[in-house]
Amino acid sequence: MIMNEKIRILVVDDDESIRRYIGKLLTQAGYDVLTVSNGKDALKELRTGPEISLAILDILMPEMDGLETLSEIRKLSSDLPILMLSALGQTNIIVKAMKAGATDYLVKPFEEEELELAITKSLEKKKLLTEISSLKKQLRVDELRGEFIYNSPKMQRVKDLVDQIAETDVSVLIEGESGTGKELVARALHYRSGLKDKPFVKVNCAALPHELLESELFGYERGAFTGAYKAKAGKFELANNGTIFLDEIGEMDLSIQSKLLQVLQEGTFSRLGGKQDVKVNVRVIAATNRDLRKAVEEGTFREDIYYRLNVVNITIPPLSERQEDITYLFEYFLDAYNEKYGKGLQVDKETLYPLLVSYPWPGNVRELKNQVKRLVILGDVGDLMHYLKDGKAHAAHERQASISRPEVLEIESDGDEIIPLKLAAKEASIKAERDMILKALRGTNWNKKKAAHLLQISYKALLYKIKECGIEK
């Protein structure tokens, strides 16, 4: 095995032949190896030498034995993986070592494969604990509390439903447009439950190609694919005994959905390239901005998974449908960013608030939050007002264009009519695009994923264009 990053292992054993044997095996495996014959030298290396990734420590040694050395090492490092070596018949000592903080143990004599497996497991456990700790530190204070910022009856109903089901372990499907706050609701479900001190792990299913998403979710064993130099735990393992949040689950490939179904049904899965089942106890919360019922009908989303996830459905209305929240959220974000950036920006509510309420907010709460952040940083209220007026005019223009479109098509059908050149070009472009999409769909027997591949666009983009062009099978 060739390591893609050097891992330094300290071997502590008073038997020179054991030190040479282990050192040779580990060096051939690609590890950096330091060997010492006693506990005092081991402590010296840990205090003054290069950083150690794992220590292999013999239990029976003269002067300072393994248990005493283990105790002293733990004073220097609480999380260093320590693998104890023992002889047959030392069960009581092994138990004491594990209670004192050893990560694992091996009984001498041992096979090369046993040593390699014990090292891999110990390093993996350390990485898992580090990642969980890091995930906890990344959570913002408001997310930890799962706070709702709202002033509308519609969001009050959402909050009431969250409070009602938070303490249960049911799967939840959260639906809503992008930017409405689906992740906030997922976090609220977690932090209002008995799992609040356990991991909350988010996975964006739309952010990775399906080949990478599978290894991200379920992990992989060493050698599972090119570049898999060591085993890695997936997000389901990181979320064990806690909550996993599968954002944009509607983008998940069918090949991964079958593996997800096994987790939902049995709580087990196998890593990529693995043969053994991994068992997890995880609450699954999923979110989507797609119509999953329609996806089920189209064959792009499994019906059995849909019903397993949709035990409880929470639909978050777009911001344009809860206008009571717009100014309330604006004031909340304004206060938050004023405090964060040390500003004291004030606005004329009588002038600004009517524009805020009348703007359609296609990006929902995320768009509002970003605009308030920009406002506070630039300190230019006029810039925000210009943005809101332009956006409102653009939305009105789009509505008018959609209403007028049938008339344009009727004019186009009349060979004696003259229409503007730009409009003619646009209509020709739309027609050509529609014809090509239809050709690709018919050529693939209406397999939308294959059609998207032929057209060299994303699957999501194809669905949008099919809807935009009014294409039906």
Automatic annotation (TrEMBL):
Domain Response regulatory stretches: 8-123
Please name the InterPro entries in this protein's record.
Answer: AAA+_ATPase, AAA_lid_NorR, CheY-like_superfamily, Homeodomain-like_sf, HTH_Fis, P-loop_NTPase, Sig_transdc_resp-reg_receiver, Sigma_54_int
Q: SUPFAM superfamilies, per this entry?
A: CheY-like, Homeodomain-like, P-loop containing nucleoside triphosphate hydrolases
Any one GO molecular function term: ATP binding
Alphabetized, the UniProt keywords read: ATP-binding, DNA-binding, Nucleotide-binding, Transcription, Transcription regulation
Q: Per its UniProt record, what Pfam families does this chain match?
A: AAA_lid_14, HTH_8, Response_reg, Sigma54_activat
Q: Which ranges carry the Sigma-54 factor interaction domain?
A: 148-377
Give the GO biological process terms. Answer: phosphorelay signal transduction system; regulation of DNA-templated transcription
Keyword Nucleotide-binding listed? The answer is yes
Output this protein's name. Regulatory protein AtoC
* Species of the source: anaerobic digester metagenome
- Lineage per the UniProt record: unclassified sequences, metagenomes, ecological metagenomes
Which gene specifies this protein's sequence?
atoC
